[in-house]
Amino acid sequence: MLSTNHRKLFVITTVLYTTCSWLVSSYLVIVPELQSHYLNTLLATTVSLKQPNNQQVCNKYKSLGRELEPVSNQILSGSGILFKTKTDNSLLSLPTEPLPKIHPNAIKSSVPIIMYHDIILKKEGIYDLTPQELEQHFELIKSSRMTPISLDRLVAHLRTGSPLPHKPIVLTFDDGYGGHYEYVYPLLKKYNYPAVFAIYTSSVGVNAGRSHVSWQQLKTMASDPLIRISSHSKTHSALTKLSEQQLYKEVAESKHTLEVKLERQVIYFTYPYGNYDSRVKKIVAEAGYLAAIAFGTPSEMFAGQSKDLFAISRFEKSHLEKVIPRAWGSPVLPQCNS
Ligand SMILES: [Zn+2]
User: Fold this and answer.
1) Which domains occur in the chain, in start order?
2) Per-residue confidence at 37, pLDDT binned at 50, 70, 90?
């Protein structure tokens, strides 16, 4: 009896021990697996909660990215710039670098800004071109499959890193010569190329020496979506040599005059002679401009390699052929890897 009881006790103990051992070992194996599974699920959920916006944006705008256009130049100053696309009506807001910094994506791009002066039938100096020569430049731009872009689009790119089309280029014409209305404007319309005209207000309508555009001509050009007007000061003085008061007049009064006469905002400044320093830049920024174009100070370089948005560099027109092979717009949206 005793031995039978002992046997029963032994069997029960063995079964209990085996069961407990199995349970313990199972616990040790299963729980970490469960924990790991749970953690993975949690992690996946967290990642998927974070990623869709960015991923959706990246997927959606992968092919459309290069067509992004800032919706309005009035919001180029904001902390996020709203873009629209050509092929659908989607809107996309991209965060900006604080003014006047240039976005890291834009630093990698190579956008040449070309500086032109008078376009005139009979050339008198190295800065002049004939209308035929300008058309040859436009033909070269076309045959090189370059894409002239607006200054709004470039500034939006410099602030957000937004992608630009194939071989972007910006065209600028300084000093408001009569030839700009007579020859340049019709050519821009013919080729559908955007451009920027830098105007110093005391020259408008003045035809002593070389001819200059009238206010009426300027107003016609300014109302065309292809054209942006930039202030080029009041009297075309070397700004670094002026007193604070004179400097303010050149920068702020010219903005006000252009805005009243043209009935639209003027948000870009072009330094006469490319002449500026930190004091001039500060006054230009304080006067309400969003960006300022220099010339080749300290040397000619692509827009993205400029020090900041108040010292945007350009190339003289004679270097057009040289810069064409190097022109490149960053193809990747900010925060997207491909
Ligand atoms: Zn000038």
Assistant:
1) 4-95 (no CATH), 104-333 (3.20.20.370)
2) very low
